[in-house]
């Protein structure tokens, strides 16, 4: 009896976590730029406290970049995009792997590699917006 009384009356669902339709790879790029900048600063400063803070910030920003790339992949890009750009699945995977590598590295080259992949996603994204 009580379970029926408190049971939800209406089920709701959404097709994505951002139904407003506002997507932009710039969010991922900005976070990845932060990762690379922190990596560069880490190379110039060997203070232990600075390094500890820098690692935490770099890892957080890399995770945020991965999140933004994942949202584009899962919520923005649709089957017609994947048909037109068959490399897109692999590109997103490579981008996420590059961000993971940058997360665990102090080498700015890993941050740049992630930025290069994000630039490719950005190019495809804006091509799809023109269509």
Amount of beta strand: under 5%
Count of alpha/pi helices:
6
Number of distinct beta strands: 0
Largest sheet features: none
The proportion of residues forming helix, as a percent range, comes to over 70%
Radius of gyration: 19 Å
Low-confidence stretches: none
Quick check: average pLDDT? 90
Distance between termini?
Answer: 54 Å
What string, H for helix and E for strand, traces the elements in order?
Answer: HHHHHH
**What is the approximate shape?**
flat
The secondary-structure class comes to mainly alpha
Q: Could you explain the architecture of this structure?
A:
The radius of gyration is 19 Å and the shape is flat. The protein is mostly helical. 74% of the residues lie in helices and 0% in strands. The protein is built from 6 helices and no strands.
Question: What's this model, at a glance?
Answer:
Its EC number is 1.15.1.1. This protein has 131 residues and is mainly alpha-helical.
Descriptive key words:
131 residues, mainly alpha, 6 helices, flat, EC 1.15.1.1, oxidoreductase, NiSOD_sf, superoxide dismutase activity
Write the layout of secondary structure elements.
Blueprint: H1 2-6, H2 26-43, H3 48-76, H4 79-84, H5 88-103, H6 108-130
Helix pairs in contact: 2-3, 2-6, 3-5, 5-6
